[in-house]
Amino acid sequence: MIRRYHCSVMYSDEYSKRILKILGDEGIHYDDIMGNAFVFYVYSDNPLTAEILKQLETEPSVEVLFSKSELENANWYILEATRFDIETSDDDFTFEYSCPYRTPYDTRYRHQKQINPYVSKRTPKWKNNYNFCAMLGDFNRVFCSDRAKNMIFTRDIVGVDYMHVVNRRGESTENVSQMVFNNILPMNCFNFIGEYSAHQCESCGIIHYEFKHPGDDNIRIRADLIPKGIDVFVAERSFSRGWIQPPIIISKKFYDLLANEMKEKHLRYFPIG
Ligand SMILES: [Zn+2]
């Protein structure tokens, strides 16, 4: 496992010249942001990375990258769909909102619950290695093609249901379904290894968890506590602020179908146990 840090430095920062020199000496590419700042990636397997990180005034965002063998050796994974290809066009039809709060400008809602299908203008342009996508802004709301549905059915993956997607006239859209996971994995099945905070909603008392470094290797699963015979769960609580849904947890059997058999390009997996 290596960590990739996405760093951003203002030219006015005290250490910017020194960092630019290190980047130049090492041949590390950076992008200029309108003459005010520059951004670059560094990796934890580079010995100079620690020195660069030490000097940054703004904490970089981090992402863990797993090798193929680290992925293959795991038994449970968090699943995310990475390509945003469904844009819902009638939120008031799809969702019911709760726990309102006032901002200086308007009233907003802390939670939304899906009560109707998504309304989408079109079907994604599926391909051989593209059968899954996400809704704009949330990796945990997953949609799939009929081909994917068929594969999941014939491989006896347990725990996936579907809801149709409709067009603006309320008719089912062809060849795209929302994936629905009805098995909830309670919070005692998770151990957090990354630093996190818990936030409780003032109105309804629901708690969500937020990691200090969201892309890092933050979670382990208590495999001994997971109900047997089920391949897909969603976590009981959200691990992010805002509208983001709780994470999806899948078995090795489901991972094998998606990653090795279907070779899907627009999903990613975080091994958690
Ligand atoms: Zn609430």
How would you sum up this structure, described in words?
The protein is of the alpha+beta class and 273 residues long. It has two domains: 2-65, Alpha-Beta Plaits (2-Layer Sandwich); 71-273, no CATH class. It has six helices and 20 strands. The strands form six sheets. Strands 13-18-19-5-20 form a five-stranded mixed sheet. Strands 6-9-10-12-11 form a five-stranded mixed sheet. Strands 2-3-1-4 form a four-stranded antiparallel sheet, with no helix packed on it. The longest helix has 11 residues, at 16-26. It is globular and about 60 Å long. The model has no long low-confidence stretch (mean pLDDT 94). Residues 99, 110-111, 201, 203-204, 206 line the site of zinc ion.
| Overall average residue pLDDT | 94
Unique bound compounds: zinc ion
- Tally of discrete structural domains: 2
Q: Which structural class best describes the helix and strand composition?
A: alpha+beta
Low-confidence stretches: none
Number of helices: 6
Using only C-alpha atoms, the radius of gyration works out to: 21 Å
List keywords for this structure.
273 residues; alpha+beta; Alpha-Beta Plaits; 2 domains; five-stranded mixed β-sheet; 17% helix; 39% strand; binds zinc ion
SSE blueprint and pairings:
Blueprint: E1 2-10, H1 16-26, E2 30-33, E3 37-43, H2 49-55, E4 61-65, H3 68-72, E5 76-81, E6 84-86, H4 91-94, E7 95-102, E8 107-114, E9 132-135, E10 138-144, H5 146-154, E11 161-166, E12 172-180, E13 184-185, E14 190-192, E15 196-200, E16 207-211, E17 219-221, E18 232-235, E19 248-251, H6 252-261, E20 267-271
Parallel strand pairs: 6-9, 13-18
Antiparallel strand pairs: 1-3, 1-4, 2-3, 5-19, 5-20, 7-8, 9-10, 10-12, 11-12, 14-17, 15-16, 18-19
Bound molecules: zinc ion (ZN).
Zinc ion binds at residues 99, 110-111, 201, 203-204, 206.
